[in-house]
Amino acid sequence: MTIKALIFDDNDLVLNTLAMFLTSNAVDVSPHHYATCPMYEKKSVLCPVEIPAFNFIISDNNMPNMTGIEFYEDIETKGCKVPNKCKALLSGDVTQNLRNRAKKLGIEVFEKPCSFEVLGRWIDTAIQYSH
Fold this sequence. Notes:
By secondary structure, the chain is α/β, with parallel strands linked by helices. 40% of the residues lie in helices and 20% in strands.
């Protein structure tokens, strides 16, 4: 079974490093510089798929146009099928407000820099939960 991940980060170094880490662990990665998903590309009001398109999503928080937490809040209202336990937020500026918003959605928050060991444990749990 193919494991698929959707990742966002506007920093090329972080995006490429994260994509290489995931690819080296047999994950099919869809990397993007800003928060997007097939739902947005099709201009849908609601998520058009019945089963999750990805096993997990990892997003940077501070990106142009939309923060990671705003993206997660938006796709939640649109019926994203990826379980919230399989969504993570990376941020170099973690505030209590950000933690509260993420907790309300059930999304994991990691402060940058985050070790691959810590992130890898979360990914393993997310993959198990997504099956």
